[in-house]
Amino acid sequence: MNKRKKITVGFIASWIFSLFFILMGLFLLINTIVFGSLVIILSLLILPPTSGLIQRKMNIKFSNGNKWLVIIVIIIVFFAGVINSAEDKVIEPTTKDIPITTKETKEEVSKVQPTNNDYNQIEELIDERNLILKKYQDSEGSYYFNALSSNDAVKYELITKSIIKKLEKYKLTAPASKKKVIEELLKEENERLEKIKETIQTWNEEVSYIKVWSKADQWDADAEKDGLLFELQVFAKEEVTIRTKGTLEVSLYHGTGLMGDQKGTFIQKWTKEYDVTDFTSGTCGGKSCAFIEDIQLEYDKDHGFGSFSVGYLEAKFISQGETFEAVQKSVLVD
Questions:
Q1: In what order do the strands lie in the sheet with 212-220?
Q2: Which domains does the chain have, with CATH numbers?
């Protein structure tokens, strides 16, 4: 007859505790091999199959008190392993947010600030600056600083300053092989900066005095149309050569009377594009000016003005976003 095995509360508890402690030992094994292995080995002492095998082989018997003692030892070993693994964790050193307390420390931290992306940012700034210059490129591919409008000149200066600042920053951590190249680039950029500063000074001292002046005389184009002879002159403070391009806008208005001071009703507008052009100032009526050309403007004769009405001619010269002073000139329109 087969002998029935007696299942007791202690037998069930041995299975539960041993399996639980084995899982804890495996978890601890990830962080510390010694303590994890020790927990697993001690857990096997209370696991019924291995416990029975050990007792038979060694001819000993584990009492319930022995098993509770093993459980207490397992718990102590487990917590000791957890504490030990926490202490063994290494915190990586970092230079981020290090308080700067001395001049030496400040200089040391500044040397690690440039990133690998700095040089790419420099190239992007150079591309942006080249887009400005492209507007002032002649047919031979040459660029002219004194062709820059005041807005573009200031923008060019700011971009160049940013390039210099980033080059100086990049130079701190660049390899020795690149330091000479960066020195040359810095020299070129500083020369560019000085040149553009001279250009801006020219704008402030001379170009700001430029204005459009016009005179108009009547002329008969044919039986259907009348015309105006328009002369454009650009005044400057001194005799200078201004290299620029822009758009001339001339508008004709019909006034309300011979002595009226209002522009009246808009009649017609003419526009003309000027490519990169040299405006060299000379003398016009005792003033420095740059004479451009005579422009003949035609307008419809059937305007219904009546004889000896007053027309107003308004001229604007717009160059790269800069609108030079517009001067209104009254003319008789027949």
A1: 212-220, 225-235, 287-300, 282-284
A2: 9-88 (no CATH), 103-205 (no CATH), 208-333 (2.60.40.10)
